Amino acid sequence: MRAFPVGDDALLVEVASGEQAQALHAELLRRRAEGSLAVREIVPAARTVLLDGLADPVRWASELTSSEVPPAPPRARELIELPVRYDGPDLAEVAAHWKVSEHEVARIHAGTEFTVAFCGFAPGFGYLTGLPARYDVPRRATPRTAVPAGAVALAGPYTGVYPRSSPGGWQLIGTAEAVLWDHARVPAALLSPGARVRFVPVGDA
């Protein structure tokens, strides 16, 4: 674990894996909830966690890098279910990469409970983990100039759902029927780090 100062009152903590980043994020949230950590924001990413608004970043850098991070506790949060039609244009390509049928891709994906590891790229976009490493898929060689809102996509170890139309190079396997970002909703993002997510097939899936 390494820690880097960011400005006068922030700290970026780097760990070795996504699992460690999720565990560190959970531990920092626990400390803030119990009152032992005063911080304005805790922002996880793929292998880092940013602490913004620390009174003494130097002390926390020393404390965090000299301590062991306990494993993330079991998720007690409510399960978010996203209805999905497995009708994506890259479904056949993913099936070939996994060496299974298209129906089996849908079965495997819908049978997995995902966790939102972190958010980014676009408002409401969550990077979901949960599929075993053998199901990692490469990004498309040529990104699309426009991916439709609601597209369920795979890239590397992650699953994501595009909250709005945007360019993208992920493999599209389905379409989710959910509003991922609504500025009139509190909170605006349906998905947040640590949330549990399951995809529920609808239609002919």
TrEMBL record:
Keyword ATP-binding appears in the UniProt entry: yes
Keywords in alphabetical order: ATP-binding, Hydrolase, Nucleotide-binding
Record Pfam families: CT_C_D
Domain called Carboxyltransferase: residue spans: 1-191
Cross-referenced InterPro entries: CT_C_D, Cyclophilin-like_dom_sf, PxpB
GO MF annotation, one: ATP binding
Superkingdom in the source lineage: Bacteria
Protein name, entry field: Allophanate hydrolase
